[in-house]
Design brief:
8-stranded parallel beta barrel, about 290 residues, 10 strands, two-stranded antiparallel sheet, TIM Barrel
Amino acid sequence: MRLGVVIPQARPWHELAQDFAWAEEIGYDVAYVYDHLTHPTAAGGWLADGWSVLAAAATTTSRIELGTLVASATLHSPVALARLAATTDDVAGGRFVLGLGAGSPLCAAADRGESPTPGEMFGRLADVVEGLVAVFDGATDWQGATRSFGGLETTPFPPGARKPYLMLAAHGPRAMGLMVQHADGWNTYGGPSSSLFEPDDYWAAVEEQVGRMTRACDEAGRDPATLRRSLLLGYGTVRPTESAAAYVAAAGRAEALGFDELVVYGPSSPGERFASDPAVHVEALSRIRR
């Protein structure tokens, strides 16, 4: 079981640097940041650019993987996102995880005053994913339904580099189909409205999503074992960082459902529902590793 932690970039860098060093020191496998222009959990506060934070964290850590949870298709086009991902991976020495999802309509409003529908957001996600894959595969021209590029004269990676690991956040059938076709890994937080479920109902919803993912793999002719499965916990009623025992229990339950990565929110996450005692993380990781 890989263990990951979200470190929201809601504090100045000199404080965030300590968070990344702590996460690496206590044994986390990967540390993630947001890719948002605005977010309810940081209302009235600071929210730094996640890509800049990851690049800085790459220079102050040596082992831990670093990623986006998730990069926003609402904010990026294929070529620009490919360049961001390849550069971050280069700075991190191959330790970057490109988590990618549809993003938030709040960011579309903040970025360009738009209010996209769920269908429009999926259409953009599909184009960003397929266009990104085209860039990584060396295409110089590509045409999608909402995004395209042409005359690309530069290489997708610096010399000797490989394409970053791609993990797609997917919940509905269309996104699942996109994910099993293109991604190395899958991430879920339980899906829309799952944050309102009581714990037993939440875990039932996650199990249903696992079944949906398996069916999507079957339909695409892909072996489900080739997908890494990542579960983000803590946004709803299941709060694994309330205690070490709760953390260990959640890890066991996630593993029983076939997940091989569990991600929680870090101690300094903004808001009472996300913050936690660092000692809980230390104890839980020690128990799980044993």
